[in-house]
Amino acid sequence: MLERLEASPNDWDIIIIGGGATGLGCAVESASRGYRTLLLESGDFARGTSSRSTKLVHGGVRYLQQGNVSLVLEALKERGRLLANAPHLVHDLPFIVPNYDWWEAPFYGVGLRVYDLLAGKLGFGASRNLSKSETLERLPTIETKGLRGGVIYYDGQFDDARLAIHLAMTAASLGATVLNYVAATALTKTGDVITGVVAREEETGAELELRGRVVINATGPFSDAIRKLDEPETTAIIRPSQGVHIVLDRSFLPGDSAIMVPHTDDGRVLFAIPWHERIVVGTTDTPLDTVSYEPCPLEEEIEFLLKHTARYLTKDPTRNDILSMFAGIRPLVGTSPDGNTAEISRDHTLHISRSGLVTIAGGKWTTYRMMAEDTIDQAATMAGLEEKPSVTKTLRLHGYHQDAAQFGELERYGADAPLVRDLIREDPRYGELLHPEANVKTGEVIWAARKEMARTVEDFLSRRTRSLLLGARTAIAMAPRVAALMAEELDRDDAWAQAQVETFVKLAEGYLPR
Prior knowledge:
Layout: H1 2-7, E1 12-17, H2 21-32, E2 37-41, E3 56-57, H3 61-65, H4 69-85, E4 90-99, H5 104-119, E5 128-130, H6 132-138, E6 149-158, H7 160-173, E7 177-180, E8 182-190, E9 193-201, E10 207-217, H8 223-230, E11 238-249, E12 258-261, E13 270-275, E14 278-282, E15 286-287, H9 299-312, E16 324-333, E17 348-352, E18 358-362, H10 368-383, H11 417-425, E19 433-435, E20 438-441, H12 442-451, H13 457-464, H14 467-470, H15 472-490, H16 494-509
Parallel strand pairs: 1-2, 1-10, 2-7, 4-12, 10-18
Antiparallel strand pairs: 3-6, 4-6, 5-6, 8-9, 9-10, 11-14, 11-15, 11-16, 12-13, 13-14, 17-18, 19-20
């Protein structure tokens, strides 16, 4: 990508700052229209919230409850498109709402049938009421005291970080230049109009001056920091909110169905979801005053999730059962009269400054494509680019494969899986497991460094594979071997490998309860 940057004339149509879901979506949208596109990410792709979601591609039952029908409609359409365009990473998942009060079955049954109607032809399956015995058959560890039955409905599940990597690869295949570890440090102007960015290549410290017809700020929770590079006195628009998840062993919820609790003590929806042979439980909604790249779960958030999980499962989890925990920051835009961020809309917002900086904020993973389409429409107008229609509604993403499940543990690579297998066969070492408790082979480290722009041990263990989220202790044990393999592939020395291990271990310890 750096060679592509150096070989290109320094006059980009669109420069995008931010390599999360929104920024990568914008890069795909822009490049697919034929615009000369550059994306800069200060860390790794999906380093922030885009790799720390609840792993759902969904319309949002809670938004229907709030009466935001337009957002649900949009999200359900996008959910269907994402399944069609990336079936190797997105699949349907049955969710069950357990019923303990007499009114819950008719109330949630009707609501979820409306959800089905809104999805129309893009629906994932019809909802229906379940008897007590049917509910227990699907959820053998559900709390039985007072259980009357349940309502089953279908939504989507995905691997967020893997989708982000495949978006980056899609954008690159369409001609975009996408760079991780290149930080935008300043905006350049001619008169009062933004004409580009100054950036720093983090690995070498080299400074780059890049010209573009328009600059898009797609940095999520950090949007206001980029806006202040443009207008130092600007008023903040982001209302950050933290969402925390805990990861448990599959024994807490065996089977292939998820649990959805529609109303917790703080008014949020709670999910317990099977994912990569683990159970992900979340989430919380805690307003924040400041944002960081590594937000930490608060004690009260961990206790909240443990308490609510124990309320609905016969096997009560404790802190010692937490295999990993992670926090993401929602870049919400707007205000709530009582300060409750759970009530702020998940709609996205486009903001254009007087000097032409286009900021896209808010929204959710499911609607990333639609957000990108809106953003590139506006950016192209700002830049005076030739108007071209969007083609991403039916654009197949990198790795597209209708039956990736045939590749077993390599399913997440989609159409790349046969190539990964070929690489693994090149060297007997590459077929070895990195750890007996992790279904990850050493050859995948080589593939990630060679083909997926993994630059650090964290990149591999957190996002190219999901090892850190699935079990922090296991990931720590894997780090030395990963560092050695990456050092060999990236031509780094032993000191680099040692520093990588130390950095990763310190990071991973934050994914475990103290």
